[in-house]
Amino acid sequence: MIKDINIKKKLTSNWFYILQQIFCNEFEKIENEFGKNVGKKPKHFKMKSWSKSQKKNEGGGIYGIIKNGLVFDSVGVNYSEVKGKFDKKLRSQIMGANKNPNYWASGISIVAHMKNPKIPAMHFNTRFIVTSNSWFGGGIDATPSFKDENEKNIFHNRIKTMCKKHNSNYLKYKKWCDNYFYLPHRGETRGIGGIFFDYKKGNWEKNFSFVRDVGLCFLEYTKYIIEKKMYNKWTKKQKNDQLIKRSRYIEFNLLYDRGTRFGLSTGGNVDAILMSLPPSAKWK
């Protein structure tokens, strides 16, 4: 059993960094395959590094973005490892920060908005946070523009199988996701849900294994649904409906998303944080 918190930090941060490379590679393969088959030039990730502070050694991150691709309208893959001290107004909101305001955090977040409106927007993140306590958090969710009950069942069943493998409480995490991705001013959920978890403590090795599989489960399903539907024909009306659905995505991320608020309030890179927003949207 690993007890040294610095080893735990190193292992989790390394995994999130490796997973970022895997996702960028797999998404570029999809772009390349589509481009080859339709005779168009694919887009590739533009990678940018950032530092939390120019004066202090407080870490930073790397984010990769494809904009206006053949398959992806936009996709961002963000990795970060940062440290610092919480402002007084944040300390009461973060576990363990009242006792010790210093923190360390590492994570990966991915948001994919698709060119084809028949493919759902996909979101995933996992993180490891250390204050005077330490814990994992994260989740997977999908936001389709059109109802597809069969696709919805496949999505949830894959996540449920993954959770069962780790004896993790799928129903609890599913309910947490449904409640979290809810827009009270609209009286509706953002998408079809998935799982959301936070403050996952206890057996670190077991939890880290679960967190790794959350990322791989997301990769497997995202590749499956993109490759299944990326050649499907779509109409202008369907694209317009997708743009209207994206307005809900924007509203949630700017009004309620905890990751957005955490990143902006702790000196994170603004471009990396807001890469979750779609490149275009419409409101009725």
Descriptive keywords:
alpha+beta, oxygen-dependent coproporphyrinogen oxidase, two-stranded antiparallel ribbon, 44% helix, globular
Provide a short characterization of the protein structure.
The protein is of the alpha+beta class and 284 residues long. It has helices at 5-38, 88-91, 149-165, 170-180, 204-229, 236-255, 258-265, 270-273, and strands at residues 46-51, 59-67, 72-85, 102-114, 121-130, 134-143, 182-183, 188-189, 193-200.
How would you describe this structure to a colleague?
The structure is a single chain. The protein has 284 residues and is of the alpha+beta class. It has eight helices and nine strands. The protein has one domain (5-276): oxygen-dependent coproporphyrinogen oxidase, CATH 3.40.1500.10. Strands 1-2-3-4-5-6-9 form a seven-stranded antiparallel β-sheet. It has a two-stranded antiparallel sheet with strand order 7-8. Strand 1 and strand 2 form a beta hairpin. The longest helix has 34 residues, at 5-38. The radius of gyration is 19 Å and the shape is globular.
Topology:
Blueprint: H1 5-38, E1 46-51, E2 59-67, E3 72-85, H2 88-91, E4 102-114, E5 121-130, E6 134-143, H3 149-165, H4 170-180, E7 182-183, E8 188-189, E9 193-200, H5 204-229, H6 236-255, H7 258-265, H8 270-273
Antiparallel strand pairs: 1-2, 2-3, 3-4, 4-5, 5-6, 6-9, 7-8
- As a percent range, the share of helical residues equals 40-55%
Order of helices and strands: HEEEHEEEHHEEEHHHH
**What is the CATH architecture annotation?**
3-Layer(aba) Sandwich
What general outline do the C-alpha atoms trace?
A: globular
How many domains, as an integer? 1
Largest beta sheet: what is the strand line-up? 1-2-3-4-5-6-9
CATH topology: oxygen-dependent coproporphyrinogen oxidase
CATH class: Alpha Beta
